């Protein structure tokens, strides 16, 4: 019986592989971290070979320890850190330079120039994005401009480029497939989300040759097979790759948000909130991004997306920089020891504020301190601060979508905080639902592969078995605290001078 699905989840700090049953139980998993490179302030790079090697080894280890024979695996699904851009030689497959990671700010000045030259609306109308260094397009441009001979070689077809999904597909298929799925393409600032193709005008504006880019493909279907000779994967040669998506969209899919209006928030280092808006793209009036969730059998599902740049990272700050907790879970324990926040608000704008505020010059702020403030109040303020920022994002989504949300599905490492989940439900006034097993990104990739392999015929047929998760019903009215939060937010805004 080919009843298993293998998900490869290539993330920003580690590569993971999880083998699932078709009912969604985890049979086996493996995780391998890799190096981060910070060659200059604000720059972040990855070594493409380290990414690949860690991912291949994780896959091999996961299957080897599972006791499942490769022949029992119906399909492989990929999920990946999005926007990270790289290039490699068509002939040898060797990477040319390092990958420029999504967090890297090296193209910020060029993006400011695009805004000043009045391109914001044209970019937004076609791509659903705002000109920002976050997206891949200006990273591709940078690679071509700063690598000797690259532009000439790219134009001759000697070099290929892509995001991490393309790099994995190329290597897994032994150089047969140069493609990128819609959910990754739409994060480049070069992709027309309405026509679902690369946009000639934007490619010209960013000086990126169109022939250099991978072929856009749907998120499920025949994406190739694992070639013989792929390092570490000799035993997996011949396995079909049947699904791929950017990790945040994969998580939305894995959370089962198939209906318009359903949304999820992932609480990790930052927060990523995605709402399914159905088959019509909704252009935000409130600073959110419009993207493709997935393309399946000719139908495109669109999403609204917003992110909080610093969420779980504020807990890391309390631990590593202030030293007032020893481990993240201490933060919850302390927060629960005080009856309220004691008037303390922590705005974690360490690197500015993302959607819906978009303030590059905001900075982290703690207000309301008194001589009675304890570390428990600070811990509580940090957790509340994550929930307030999520509430700000969701309020913007509700305005754009023109309807209130019914519930919020959550996942990610920081979603284990019971205190924060309850506070989130109180603030939003709707239930917050956390699945028992929170590896929704990998499960989303597995589901896309399962659809491509024919295990199910539509997303609605996918049913995950297992222990139910936990739902947090709203209990306490937090409108007074939320109003005070808005005041704290104003104190954090426009702090740094340009
Ligand atoms: N009990 C907890 N309460 C609050 N935050 C937590 C808790 N446990 C972990 N975190 C936070 O979760 C984050 C890690 O989540 P994870 O989903 O692994 O992030 P990422 O994928 O961004 O690396 C860290 O920033 C950590 O501070
Ligand atoms: O690798 P993650 O989980 O931090 O996700 C990164 C996002 O895809 C960036 O947009």
UniProtKB/TrEMBL annotation:
Residues that hold ATP according to the record: 12-14, 269, 312, 316, 413
Function: Key enzyme in the regulation of glycerol uptake and metabolism. Catalyzes the phosphorylation of glycerol to yield sn-glycerol 3-phosphate.
Protein's organism: Evtepia gabavorous
Gene from which the chain derives: glpK
Name of the protein: Glycerol kinase
Protein family (similarity comment): Belongs to the FGGY kinase family.
Pathway: Polyol metabolism; glycerol degradation via glycerol kinase pathway; sn-glycerol 3-phosphate from glycerol: step 1/1
Gene Ontology MF terms in the entry: ATP binding; glycerol kinase activity
GO BP field: glycerol catabolic process; glycerol-3-phosphate metabolic process
Catalytic activity: glycerol + ATP = sn-glycerol 3-phosphate + ADP + H(+)
Binding site residues for glycerol: 82-83, 134, 247-248
């Amino acid at each position: 019986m080919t009843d298993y699905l293998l998900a490869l989840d290539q993330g920003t700090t580690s590569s993971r592989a999880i083998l699932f049953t078709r009912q969604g139980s985890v049979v086996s998993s493996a995780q391998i971290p890799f190096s981060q490179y910070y060659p200059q302030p604000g720059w972040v790079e990855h070594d493409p070979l380290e990414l690949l090697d860690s991912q291949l080894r994780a896959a091999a280890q996961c299957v080897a320890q599972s006791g499942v024979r490769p022949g029992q695996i119906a399909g492989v699904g990929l999920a990946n850190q999005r926007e990270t851009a790289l290039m490699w030689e068509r002939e040898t497959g060797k990477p040319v330079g390092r990958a420029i990671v999504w967090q890297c700010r090296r193209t910020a000045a060029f993006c400011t120039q695009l805004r000043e030259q009045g391109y914001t609306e044209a970019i937004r109308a076609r791509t659903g994005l705002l000109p920002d260094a976050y997206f891949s397009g200006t990273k591709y441009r940078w690679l071509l401009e700063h690598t000797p001979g690259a532009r000439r070689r790219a134009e001759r077809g000697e070099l290929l480029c892509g995001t991490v999904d393309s790099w994995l597909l190329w290597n897994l298929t032994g150089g047969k497939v140069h493609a990128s799925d819609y959910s990754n393409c739409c994060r480049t600032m070069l992709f027309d989300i309405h026509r679902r193709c690369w946009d000639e005008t934007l490619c010209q504006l960013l000086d990126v040759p169109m022939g250099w880019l991978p072929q856009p493909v749907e998120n499920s279907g025949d994406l190739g097979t694992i070639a013989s000779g792929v390092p570490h994967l000799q035993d997996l040669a011949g396995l079909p790759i049947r699904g791929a998506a950017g990790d945040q969209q994969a998580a939305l899919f894995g959370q089962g948000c198939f209906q318009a209006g359903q949304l999820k928030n992932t609480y990790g280092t930052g927060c990523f909130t995605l709402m399914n808006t159905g088959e019509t793209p909704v252009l935000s009036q409130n600073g959110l991004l419009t993207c493709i969730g997935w393309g399946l059998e000719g139908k495109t599902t669109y999403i609204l997306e917003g992110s909080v740049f610093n969420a779980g990272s504020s807990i890391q700050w309390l631990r590593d920089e202030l030293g007032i907790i020893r481990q993240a879970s201490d933060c919850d324990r302390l927060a629960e020891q005080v009856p309220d926040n004691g008037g303390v608000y922590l705005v974690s704008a360490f690197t500015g504020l993302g959607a819906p505020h978009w303030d590059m010059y905001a900075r982290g702020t703690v207000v309301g301190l008194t001589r009675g403030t304890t570390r428990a109040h600070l811990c509580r303020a940090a957790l509340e601060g994550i929930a307030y920022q999520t509430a700000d994002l969701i309020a913007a989504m509700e305005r754009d979508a023109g309807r209130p949300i019914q519930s919020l599905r959550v996942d990610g490492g920081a979603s284990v905080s019971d205190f924060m989940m309850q506070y989130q439900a109180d603030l939003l006034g709707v239930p917050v639902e956390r699945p028992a097993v929170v590896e929704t990104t990998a499960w989303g990739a597995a589901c896309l592969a399962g659809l491509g392999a024919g295990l199910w015929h539509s997303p609605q047929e996918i049913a995950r078995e297992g222990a139910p998760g936990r739902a947090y019903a709203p209990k306490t009215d937090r409108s007074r605290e939320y109003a005070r939060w808005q005041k704290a937010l104003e104190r954090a805004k426009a702090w740094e001078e340009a």
